[in-house]
Specification:
three-stranded antiparallel beta sheet, 12 strands, 12% helix, disordered N terminus
């Protein structure tokens, strides 16, 4: 999910900037001499919260994710895994509450109505502020280009599957209310996941709701639904993919036969839940996590030989393919992920995405730490 080495802003993809944005595919990041095997065993002695604390109420629309230990990253049987999913390493997470589904258009609309919040993709562009981020002497683009918008997927024939700009189009006027660009609408789509959400847009919603984004470890633990060894939450077989997730079926990105019932976004909970009662942890739309993306993080964690308890991810962002990038980890894949192309609906799949990215297939869900109900409120 990158927009070149010079990221003016995800809102304006000028013709002079090469689009390096992938729908699912990302170069495999494998540091030299990296051992892709598990280097340490899970420490069974680490206590984790597995039961809902006494007096804690289950929030509406959320489910309890019992704490547990697992090996984060690609399982050994996953032949589609990429370098940055390895080596798998042991982690332990405490229990928490998580949204049953991705945040919907209806939920985000309530948030914006009550707060007046305007998403990044909707905001008027301030050239005086923007040029501070650019090389001295950069000319101001034409006003017709310097308009708020976002990236929209376009189906069609491509000549090079590594040139992601062939199926992504910078579209003035595209935002969460007009997810496919001007003229489109979310009317009648209250239960579809909200998209074109940049990181700060997700954080703003979380703060309003009194929640937070999941860490990458929490997200993967929850997505497994208790299946600690499967490639997918339902197991290793991809034969039932169209029954379990909203993904691309057909020849990507030319044709979509809609074998799974949907061409683009599907209403949340259209597919079976995993073992924890969570829907759409595979496919539909990518989901933000709170972790910085760092190419070296998995290798560094495995090298400690210890089980990490409630890891918060890397302390800084670093992408070996683009050292200047400042990115977060997103998980889950989307309706654009193809079984023959990238398979990012696998539980261990991960992607690096810049904080200002607002895309047609990127949303989020929230989590909440378990806290006993206050019996004597002041």
């Amino acid at each position: 999910m990158k927009i070149g080495k010079l990221i003016w802003n995800t809102r304006i993809l000028l013709l002079s900037i090469t689009v390096l944005l992938g729908s699912c595919k990302e170069k495999s990041v494998t540091p030299k001499n990296q051992d892709n095997q598990i280097t340490s065993k899970i420490e069974e002695s680490i206590p984790v919260i597995t039961e809902i604390p006494t007096g804690t109420e289950i929030p509406e629309g959320m489910v309890w994710i019992p704490g547990g230990s697992f090996n984060q990253g690609a399982v050994s049987s996953d032949h589609m895994s990429m370098g940055h999913e390895k080596p798998s390493h042991p982690v332990a997470v405490d229990g928490f509450f998580m949204d049953i589904s991705e945040v919907t258009n209806a939920q985000y609309a309530k948030f914006t109505k009550e707060t007046g919040y305007i998403t990044l993709a909707e905001r008027k562009i301030d050239w005086e502020e923007m040029k501070k981020q650019l090389p001295a002497g950069t000319p101001k683009p034409h006003d017709s280009i310097l308009q708020p918008g976002s990236l929209v997927f376009r189906m069609g024939v491509v000549t090079n599957l590594q040139d992601y700009s062939q199926w992504w189009k910078w579209t003035v006027g595209a935002n969460w209310k007009q997810p496919n660009g001007p003229g489109s609408s979310i009317k009648g789509k209250d239960n579809e996941p909200v998209v074109h959400i940049a990181y700060e847009d997700a954080i703003a919603y979380c703060e309003w709701a009194g929640r937070r984004l999941p860490t990458e470890a929490e997200w993967e633990h929850a997505a497994r639904g208790g299946n600690t060894s499967g490639i997918h939450y339902w197991g290793d077989s991809a034969e039932t993919l169209s029954n379990n997730a909203n993904t691309w079926t057909g020849e990507f990105p030319r044709t979509n036969d809609q074998e799974d019932g949907h061409e683009r976004r599907a209403p949340v909970m259209s597919y079976p839940s995993n073992g924890y009662g969570l829907h759409d942890m595979a496919g539909n739309v990518w989901e933000w996590t709170s972790d910085w993306y760092n190419s070296n993080y998995y290798r560094e964690q495995a090298a400690t030989g210890k089980t990490q308890h409630n890891p918060k991810g890397a302390t800084r962002a670093f992408n070996s393919n683009n050292p200047y990038a400042v990115e977060k980890v997103i998980k889950g894949g989307s309706f654009l992920c193809s079984a023959s192309y990238c398979a990012s609906y696998r539980v261990s799949a991960r992607m690096a995405t810049s904080l200002d990215s607002a895309l047609e297939h990127l949303g989020f869900r929230t989590v909440l730490d378990a806290k006993p109900k206050d019996k004597n409120p002041s």
